[in-house]
Design goal:
Helix content: 10-25%
Strand content: 35-45%
Order of helices and strands: HEEEEEEEEEEEEEEEEEE
Structural class: mainly beta
Number of strands: 18
Number of helices: 1
Shape: globular
Length: 205
Amino acid sequence: MTKPIICCVMFVILLSYAITTAAEDRPVQRTVTEKRLIQIDFASLIPALFAVSPDSQRVAYGARAEQKQVVIVDGKQGKAYQAILSGMLRFSPDSKRLAYGVQQDRQSFLVVDDKASKAYAALGAGTLRFSPDSQRVAYTVVTDNRMRVVVNDTEHPPYTAIVADSLTFSPNGQRLAYGAAVGTQMFVVLDGQEGPRYDPLVADS
């Protein structure tokens, strides 16, 4: 009786090993689904104006409409303007909001959630920022040959210059810092309050 039992056990072990090996060698089956978000008319598309939301569910892009330009969001066309500014088309981190810069009648302004903000002589290219909580919008503007930061339509003081790419929100979106300059002196502005001013560093000093 002992020998048949041993043979039976060995058979079960070999069978289990064969099943396990076969399962490991079998290709993993994956189900791939596709969803068309929008249909784009590439004849009117402005390649420099294209944005996908962080959740990959929404698409916005600029398009030519006769002699003007428009932003199309999720297949819906917005108001036509003389020009949509490149580098100023952006979704909020939660993918629910959209902002972009436009030029109309020799002035520039931001459009946030389809609402036009105050017009200025120019907007700072590429300065548009949403806070991490998606509640605040910050960008730079040019007025009277000086630059200032605007946060949710609240204007900060004007300066000689705003340091490029310096607008930074805190992780909770409650604080904002950026670099600014008055004359030859530079400093950090935190929540609208200036820090100490310093002279710029000189090479080999």
